[in-house]
TrEMBL record:
Domain annotation Flavodoxin-like: ranges: 252-391
Family: In the N-terminal section; belongs to the zinc metallo-hydrolase group 3 family.
InterPro entries: Flavodoxin/NO_synth, Flavodoxin_CS, Flavoprotein-like_sf, Metallo-B-lactamas, ODP_dom, RibonucZ/Hydroxyglut_hydro, Rubredoxin-O_OxRdtase
Name of this protein: Flavorubredoxin
SUPFAM superfamilies, A to Z: Flavoproteins, Metallo-hydrolase/oxidoreductase
Coiled-coil zones: none
Lineage: Bacteria, Thermotogati, Thermotogota, Thermotogae, Petrotogales
Cited PANTHER family: ANAEROBIC NITRIC OXIDE REDUCTASE FLAVORUBREDOXIN (PTHR43717)
Amino acid sequence: MNGFLNITDDVFYVGVNDRDTHLFENMWPLDKGVSYNSYIIRDEKNVLVDTVKVTKIREFLEKVRSLLDGQKIDYLVINHMEPDHSGSITEILEEYPDLKIVGNKKTFEFLENFYGVKDNLYEVKDGDELDIGNHKLKFVMTPMVHWPETMMTYETTEKILFSGDAFGGFGTLDGGVFDDEVNLEFYESEIRRYYSNIVGKYSMMVQRALKKLEGVEVKYVCATHGPVWRDNPSRIIDIYDKWSRYETEEGVVIIYGSMYGNTEHMADYLARKLSEEGIKNIKIMNVSKVHLSHLINEIWRFKGIILGSCTYNTGLFPPMEELAHWLEHTGIKNHVMGIFGTYGWSGGGVSTLEKYAEKMKMPLVGESVEAKLSANREDLKKLNELAKNMAKAVKE
């Protein structure tokens, strides 16, 4: 089996799957793995677009050798220097020592610092083109999507966008590689998890990058992770536009931190009252059990956030503090928030969440509800009001 796939007659997929790595960037769970996508354009000059993580070099090189069948690589285009895409550069250079490396000025700074490579460089700037025969490559600078050196490569003849990490997501490509071969509902969730965790902080820069693509015909989107979009490439571009504008769906995510179940009971009560108010998309998530990446993914999706925390050592429950800090760091917008919790001999959990909401400039839908040890009848009445206010806010 040769392992490579035709995207068009002259453009090929030579990516690999990674089902071994547990954490992406040593932080984000890869429950369903990840793909590292690389591409080859065969023409008068042969071009390799991005490489793969060095742990997958053997499989990768087998595909490249099989496809080229003794031909050389003339150019290596580096759209992104993160090591899951640049990690095989030194091995590629050993195999094809005469190739020229195509990148921008910032790319080459990273290249030297990562791998000590500083020869055979072909520097490009925004809008520059490279003629390789029947195909012509145009380079689009997209800094901070999500590193400062990131760029995209647009093949003008067949309208192929090699987009780097943009439009990519988690999840291995299990047989199906193209968007018309896979379950898009699964991949869109994993793409949103990737976006919200890694790229979302730079949403303003994503909008700038998308503006550069306005009016450009794109027949294929070839990202460095996830499916190749050939059937409906506008779908993934539109999704990125929506997420980077912080557009949300009608629904509420309730995330709670509870040591002995009392705060959890309040979360369940709120969820029932939200349902009675006509909210159908309701997610209850345990901050101590569900990984941060999945919490952020659901928060990015739905307009309403309700955070509930017990008090811990006169402060916020530590796993909830991690989430609150990350939301502040991400700068998420266009959401509404509710707050509830419990305390024993001293408060601190709810008041700390309110301070985070203020720093995030996140509007609160009503009065926070804080119960002493467990919710009594008066607390439940307040939770009723919180649910009504939240339901009204997410429907607006």
